[in-house]
Design goal:
The protein is an alpha/beta fold. The chain has two domains: 170 residues, NAD(P)-binding Rossmann-like Domain (Rossmann fold, 3-Layer(aba) Sandwich), CATH 3.40.50; 142 residues, Orthogonal Bundle (N-(1-d-carboxylethyl)-l-norvaline Dehydrogenase, domain 2), CATH 1.10.1040.10. The protein contains 15 helices and eight strands. Strand 4, helix 3 and strand 5 form a beta-alpha-beta unit. Helix 3 runs parallel beside helix 4, helix 7 crosses helix 13 and helix 13 packs across helix 14. The relative contact order is 0.11. The mean pLDDT is 96. Bound molecules: 1,4-dihydronicotinamide adenine dinucleotide (NAI) and 1,3-dihydroxyacetonephosphate. 1,4-dihydronicotinamide adenine dinucleotide binds next to helix 1. 1,4-dihydronicotinamide adenine dinucleotide (NAI) binds next to helix 1. It comes from Parasphingorhabdus halotolerans. Its main location: cytoplasm. InterPro entries: 6-PGluconate_DH-like_C_sf, 6PGD_dom2, G3P_DH_NAD-dep, G3P_DH_NAD-dep_C, G3P_DH_NAD-dep_N, NAD(P)-bd_dom_sf. One of its GO terms (cellular component) is cytosol.
Length: 333
């Protein structure tokens, strides 16, 4: 059993936009927050200029955030937030030093080769560490600015929630408890794929009705897939599911929505994904989600459509015609 206190030492692993924004919000009231970055220039900028121009420009960071290139420095931390892209979680967990820290997973995706959710990857690599998932409608730039944000903190038990929620809750950052770790993860992973679909709707000029229809029917797909993996519908109806789906399906601030918008305008996924140092998780989650859903006998026609568009196998007009001409079924299916 870990003992976390108000001055517990927090470590954030991953200094992209989200890791940096979490470091900013969670460093309030702390002596020091340690941020691991894999880019030497990010470490230098955070420590010397108190900013991260590569991933979260135009934000001044607290002076008590210290960046390091050496992941071994995380050994003495009581709580570790893992904020790497989903496909790199396994390698980063494997390089962490021996630690009893509570691990809070903040990335949104499904591992490509294994079809495992992030908590399942963590259980394989770090079976003895207490585990939680932090997920919800949280654009990094808004959190870094201190704008009000509510999200889900799913913990493997209530005792862990009692220990870590005082470190996460701030005046503008409000976590809600859930004991449904899988549900919290599935919401975040699936909404990224649906956000690509909503971007396509925008880019192809298909209208607001189509966008709302996609959100509604996409949510039905999320519920069906969630049920097949043991997630609770009530979790998916909350901040980490529907809440995040609505956010990322409505704004070009979302990298997934922007990727979809480019596809809808006729650009290829290859072009849109080349030469970028930021991650659009939905592009990596989509094919693995499709494979996993098929193996479980779960119908996800919107996810299938996004996969076909990402692979360059079709165009928005054909996809719409295919979706609109499916056999008529009950809305409850
Ligand atoms: N940006 C946001 O508003 C939010 C992002 N997230 C999630 O947080 C996770 C991280 O995303 P961002 O911080 O936005 O990243 P980002 O897109 O801002 O930056 C890319 C990150 O990937 C890291 N990276 C690249 N190659 C790597 C490797 N081989 N090993 C380890 N790390 C590597 C970079 O160092 C950098 O930290 C994603 O799963 C994302 O879905 C969750 C909530 C909000
Ligand atoms: O997950 C996010 C907001 O909750 C960020 O969305 P994007 O990765 O699409 O930018």
């Amino acid at each position: 059993m870990i003992v976390v206190h108000a001055k517990a030492r927090i470590g954030v692993v991953g200094a992209g936009a989200w890791g940096t924004a979490l470091a900013q919000v969670l460093s309030e009231g702390q002596d020091e927050l340690l941020l691991w970055a894999r880019e030497p220039e990010v470490v230098e900028q955070v420590n010397q200029a108190h900013e991260n121009r590569m991933f979260l420009s135009s934000h001044s960071l607290r002076q008590n955030i210290r960046a390091t290139l050496d992941i071994a420095d995380m050994a003495e931390r009581d709580v570790l937030l893992m904020v790497t892209p989903a496909q790199h979680l396994r390698s980063c967990l494997a390089t962490l030093p021996e630690t009893n820290a509570a691990i809070i997973l903040c990335c949104k995706g499904i591992e490509a080769d294994s079809q495992l959710l992030m908590s399942e990857v963590a259980q394989e690599i770090r079976p003895d560490n207490p585990l939680a998932v932090l997920s919800g409608p949280t654009f990094a730039h808004e959190v870094a600015k201190g704008l009000p944000t509510a999200l889900t903190l799913a913990c493997e038990n209530e005792a862990l929630w009692d220990q870590i929620n005082p470190l996460i809750a701030k005046t503008s950052f409000r976590p809600y408890f859930s004991n449904d770790i899988l549900g919290a993860e599935i919401g975040g992973a699936v909404k990224n794929v649906l956000a690509i679909g909503c971007g396509v709707v925008d880019g192809a000029g298909l209208g607001q009705n189509a966008r709302a229809s996609l959100i509604g029917r996409g949510f039905a797909e999320m519920l069906r897939y969630g049920a097949s993996r043991g997630a609770k519908a009530e979790t998916l109806s909350g901040l980490c599911g529907l809440g995040d789906l609505v956010l990322t399906c409505s704004s070009t601030s979302s990298r997934n929505f922007s990727l979809g918008k480019g596809l809808g305008e006729g650009q290829s996924a290859e072009t849109l994904l080349s030469d970028r140092n930021t991650v659009a998780e939905g592009a990596y989650t989509a094919p693995v989600l499709q494979r996993d859903a098929q193996s479980r006998g779960v119908e996800m026609p919107i996810v299938d459509a996004v996969c076909a568009l990402l692979a360059g196998n079709t165009d928005p007009k054909s996809v719409v015609s295919q979706l609109m001409n499916r056999p008529l079924v009950s809305e409850r299916r």
